[in-house]
Amino acid sequence: MSGDQTRVTKISSLTPGPERGTECCLVQIHGPELGKKYVLEETEFTIGRDQHNHIVVDLDNVSRRHARIWTRQGKTFVEDLQSTNGTYLNDREVLQAQPLRSGDLVKVGGSIFKFLDGDNIETQYHETIYTLTIADGLTGINNKRYFLEYLEREMGRSHRYQRTLSLMMFDIDHFKQINDVHGHLAGDYVLREMAQSIKRLVRREQCFARYGGEEFAIVMPEDGPDKARLFAEKIRKLVEDKRFVFEDKDIPVTISIGVAEVASEMSEPSQFIKVADANLYKAKKSGRNRVVG
After folding, report:
1. In order of start, what are the domains of the chain with their CATH numbers?
2. Spatial distance between the Cα atoms of 141 and 210, rounded to a whole number of angstroms
3. What count of Cα atoms within 13 Å lies in the side-chain half-sphere of residue 20?
4. How far apart are CA 30 and CA 42, in angstroms?
5. Of 110, 109, 128, whose CA–CA distance to 118 is shortest?
6. 41-57: per-residue pLDDT in tens?
7. Active site residues
8. Which residues form the FHA domain (predicted)?
């Protein structure tokens, strides 16, 4: 959905009033308007594809009037407006009006908004924006920018101290088919669930990141090829055995993995990634759901 665009209706209520001691807002953390802040000063806000909504999200999987955010007696609620694809609060479908707490994630089609509330909303907002510079909004793991900076730093350290360094690149097998059969919301669910499951296995000194689309990477400092391959096999098995269920439908998911070890002639991250990607390609060509490298 990289070509999609989000249009925001310009209304005066999006500017915070000086007399208000506390406020609440939505910050887009996934979608084309990354970091966009919407101050919720009116008692009711609607989100949808139609131009008459307070927040206009022009995506195919967003209904004309998709969701409503409203305030009553100091509490803020989210409600789905019988949209085609549903509204989700912290990955659970909103079937009736649900109260919002600061930090909650509201998913509307291909966009995700983070709800912020409280006296320190500016601090929360700046922390959210900082997180967006290093983390992927959909999966919650590191993003490509952070991954490339981390890999370059670790490659320099590896060459300087003659320490081994391994890289794992992997992606979801037949991911386009998952989107075509089950829909893009199901595809987003698979990406997020898989990433969070793998994240629990990744050590603190390692880097786990979304490289782009359905491709992911793990940098493993001081892990040699044998140890890296064993870890890759463990991850492959974890995904194969995990049950992915979206809207009561099972979605079989497997991944193909390419593993590479840094070499002395590699001076740029792109050279290292190219080798791991080549092994990933071999894994897919030789039948998928396997580790090569």
Report:
1. 25-133 (2.60.200.20), 137-291 (3.30.70.270)
2. 7
3. 18
4. 24
5. 128
6. 888 999 999 999 999 99
7. 214
8. 45-94
Place of tokens 């919407």: 38
Amino acid at 291: V
95: left (phi over 0), alpha (psi -120 to 50) or beta: alpha
> Residue 272's closest CA among 200, 208, 197, 218?
218
Residue-wise DSSP of 209-242: EEEETTEEEEEEET--HHHHHHHHHHHHHHHHHS
Q: Is the pTM of this model over 0.70?
A: yes
Phi, psi of 151 (to 5 degrees): -65, -40
The tokens for 247 are 């809207």
CA atoms lying within 13 Å on the CB side of residue 115: 21
Both structure tokens of 207: 């880097």
Q: What is the separation of C-alpha 182 from the centre of its chain, rounded to a whole number of angstroms?
A: 19
**Entry field: residues in the chain:** 293
Q: List Cβ neighbours of 212 (8 Å cut-off, separation of 6 or more).
A: 144
The model's pLDDT over 141-162, given as tens digits with 9 standing for 90+, comes to 999 999 999 999 999 999 999 9
For 73, residues 6+ apart whose C-beta sits below 8 A from its C-beta are: none
Strands 75-80, 67-72: pairing is: antiparallel
Query: Amino acid identity, residue 209?
Result: A
Q: What is the DSSP string of 22-54?
A: SEEEEEEEESTTTT-EEE--SSEEEEESSTTSS
Strand runs (DSSP E) across the chain, as ranges? 23-30, 37-39, 44-48, 55-56, 67-72, 75-80, 87-89, 92-93, 98-99, 105-108, 111-118, 165-172, 207-212, 215-221, 245-246, 249-250, 255-261, 291-292
What amino acid is encoded at 285 in this protein?
K
